[in-house]
Amino acid sequence: MPLVDIPARVLANTRLAADYNVIALAAPEIARAAEPGQFVMVKPSRRTDPLLRRPFSVFEILRDVAGAPTGLSILVKRVGVTTSQLFDLEPGGIVDTLGPLGQPFTPVTPPAEAWMVAGGVGLAPFATLAEALGTLRTPMTLFYGARRGEELFYLDWFASRGVRLVLTTEDGSRGERGRVTRPLERALADASDAAPPTVYACGPEAMLASVARLAERHHRPSQVSVERVMGCGMGGCYSCVVPVRDGRGGHHFVRSCLAGPVFAGADLVWD
To answer: What pLDDT score was predicted for residue 153?
Structure first.
């Protein structure tokens, strides 16, 4: 599909918590082509520090009253220079936006179920996936973990779309105390072959490795979206390579911006 590089106007900056926000961008050309799990490369316009753009999953597809795509949003956690600049943007600001990039998730259809596993800002690709799965009438569950209850976002948004929520927090302030892989493991052990789950995951790499291994142990397919530093997003800089099994007992390296960011969990080398 053709890439689009545009100066996207900031439509809104919604602060979710002290260091988290959602930036809505007027980018209809990208929104029309984007699929669940794809990403964009962005940076505030006319900034030279940092020089390179940063990757963000397409969070929401924004639509007008007739349902036509008008833009997209990105979920941001303020941790460095670029994310701090994005956090401080005001409506009317301009963000250089390139996309859509990368390989998307493959939505499953009934009687299969879709189990989405999100750690922190790993929630980002699941809004578009939930919309696609909802169109297919696929039953959905979101296993969502964070450090604290106030860092669990968009719960009403997912619930209103028929997504069953399973929540965990490290401090026990909301949902089950502990890691999100704990309830996932129990659910996989009890899963029915009549409604086989496909597991989708995005979050820290240690979490992805655990999810992929759990799915493989219980003979369930998984699709994981890896988080890698990307200098260009188009395969030119080789900064985002990941090891992939070659089917002969070894592995080779691929660029996650081109071959991913979504991979079959069983195809990646986690050790």
So the answer is: 98
